[in-house]
Specification:
With 571 residues, the protein is of the alpha/beta class. It has 20 helices and 25 strands. The relative contact order is 0.08.
């Protein structure tokens, strides 16, 4: 059976079991397996009536919800190609993506999208809303056998090469590209992810069902894989409905696991430290001593008395911090970008292991994953069984396996550049240790080459500076073709604290990697200004262009020393 058949079989076997929970205020609103099956059936029928045929693209636009899940599964079951779009993305970018893939239908969560696209796009596809389909196609009361027949995936879906989705990349270096993933990609990857979840949950001391909390948009590959993995395993998935209430929702969901991106974990770590510092007193003193003892132990520099401080912190303070993530939390999973080693160690310190994964949309989201019982902070684990990985020119990571996509939608040249001699060229720089654990250094396209010929990956430097400067929201290193590197920093801080952090940073770095100048940007980088992608990665070229004059000013008098403001002493 392929992945869709497995999901439908699991849903049919336990029709009364809640499978999806939406968090509304302080309430958990459940959708049972049977209700989800009924919705899939209704959507499947309605899309067929609207003219969707095997191979047709069907765009799906809306925030995470049980309805989104029903539409996604119904599109694929009918042989259509689901094109999930980010509901917070700029409408012009959404139109650009839809013009590229030419969907026959656009299914969206709200009526406002119809008005947005109908008014600004003459060639817009037929637009259907969730309510329009689900409320005008009430459940027909089909018997189990009839329901199963109605939603059974068409024969086309059983072919390994049948495309099931087009997921658009974030567009960090230009126009987003549509990544085509097929049945073979999904069958392979879901077997691996569910196997690892089995391993993770088997080692848990929890009895009964394990809850997975989810806040990342389903339109991203790794997020979508989390959803499908839970459906394959029949795990309850708790869906966040308000990112502004994330801390409250976590307590309401009381999850055992959830998937994260580094930016959120960095923010949580900094928030915990800031609150304890604000509280002061014994809590602050114990936290500082316990944390210092922990990190010295991690570096093999334990001092006399460190064990005592760790025992006190583990008894009196760290459990209280951990409880803020809910009483059941066993582990976090993190991906999309490298997580700072210090942050991974921080969570381990308070009793929450963070397992890292590495992958691209083009590799069906995942290539590596930390082992449950042994992982190395700062690394992303070994290659998943069945996937080959090696280092190419300039330490570029190359990948080969059933998880590698067949190509980009309507972009043969870009596909040929990515797929060469049987290997996927990821564009990521990496290294591998003797145990087979990978570390991601940075992106080749972001590599800074100074006028002295030094090759510098900016990401590790940016990570280190953000650890030393918790107030910083974003750090971006610049200096390609220059004598030295500089940094753009956003966040609520003063020049003196930034200069002190830069000075500490430089003590850890060789001379050619030291940050000699910095500029404090008056506003944070945002999606609205085009400085961040939808998954909050830096759009470096856009940022450099916007701050072109400020960057030039940092290099006007390169011979002058840095002062306490991080700038040169110009008249």
């Amino acid at each position: 059976m392929n992945f869709l058949q497995i999901i439908f079989q699991k849903l049919a076997q336990q029709r009364d079991k809640p499978i999806l929970y939406e968090i509304h205020g302080s309430e958990l609103v459940a959708t049972t397996c049977g209700q989800l099956l009924a919705d899939i059936c209704r959507v499947h029928h309605a899309l067929g009536q609207a003219g969707l045929r095997p191979g047709d693209r069907c765009a799906l636009l809306g925030p995470n919800s049980s309805r989104w899940v029903a539409f996604d599964l119904a599109i694929m079951a009918g042989g259509g190609i689901a094109v999930p779009l980010y509901s917070r993305q700029d409408p012009d970018e959404l139109v650009q993506m839809m013009k590229d893939c030419a969907p026959r239908l656009l299914c969206c969560s709200e009526e406002r999208w119809r008005q947005t696209f109908d008014s600004g796009w003459k060639e817009a596809p037929r637009i259907l809303t969730y309510d329009q389909i689900l409320e005008t196609n009430p459940s027909s009361g089909l018997e189990d056998s009839e329901l199963a027949k109605a939603i059974a995936p068409l024969p086309e879906v059983s072919r390994d090469d049948h495309p099931v989705t087009i997921i658009y990349t974030s567009g960090t270096s230009g126009e987003p590209k549509g990544v085509v993933l097929n049945v073979k990609n999904l069958n392979f990857m879901l077997e691996r992810t569910t196997s690892r979840l089995e391993e993770l949950m088997a080692k848990s001391e929890s009895s009964g069902e394990h809850r997975v909390f989810h806040y990342l948009p389903f339109c991203f590959a790794a997020s979508w894989m989390t959803l499908l993995s839970c459906l394959v395993r029949n795990n309850s998935l708790m869906i966040s409905m308000d990112l502004n209430r994330l801390a409250d929702e976590i307590l309401i969901a009381a999850p055992h696991y959830f998937v994260n991106v580094p930016a959120v974990l960095e923010r949580v770590r900094n928030g915990v430290s800031a609150q304890i510092n604000k509280k002061g007193g014994i809590a602050k003193y114990l936290f500082e001593r316990g944390q210092e003892a922990w990190f010295r132990d991690c570096m093999g520099r334990k001092r006399r008395g460190d064990d005592w401080w760790l025992v006190l912190a583990r008894c009196l303070l760290f459990p209280k911090i951990k409880y803020r993530f809910g009483p059941n939390l066993r582990a976090l999973i993190c991906g999309s970008a490298p997580l700072a080693e210090e942050t991974q160690q921080f969570f381990k310190m308070i009793g929450i292991p963070v397992l890292q994964v590495y992958g691209l949309t083009e590799t069906t989201a995942i290539c590596t994953m930390d082992k449950v019982d042994s992982f190395t902070p700062g690394r992303v684990g070994p290659a998943i069984p069945g996937i080959e990985m090696l280092l190419g020119i300039n330490d570029e990571i190359l990948v080969r396996g059933p998880n590698v996509f067949p190509g980009y939608w309507n972009r043969p040249r870009a596909s040929a550049e990515m797929l060469r001699e049987g290997w996927l060229h990821t564009g990521d720089q990496g290294e591998i240790d003797a145990a087979g654990n990978w570390r991601i250094i940075g992106r080749l396209k972001n590599l800074i080459i100074t006028s002295g010929g030094h090759n510098i990956s900016p990401e590790p430097i940016e990570q280190k500076l953000q650890v030393l400067l918790p107030e910083a929201e974003h750090v971006m290193v610049v200096g390609n073709g220059r004598k030295f590197i500089s940094a753009l920093i956003t966040g609520q801080m003063n020049q003196k604290s930034a200069a002190m952090a830069v000075e500490k940073l430089n003590l850890q770095l060789p001379h050619y990697k030291q940050v000699r100048r910095f500029y404090l940007c008056p506003e944070p980088f945002s999606e609205m200004k085009g400085f961040l992608t939808v998954n909050r990665k830096l759009r470096r070229s856009a940022i450099e262009e916007h701050y072109r004059e400020e960057i030039e000013a940092l290099y006007l008098v390169a011979s002058q020393p840095i002062d306490a403001t991080g700038n040169t002493n110009r008249e």
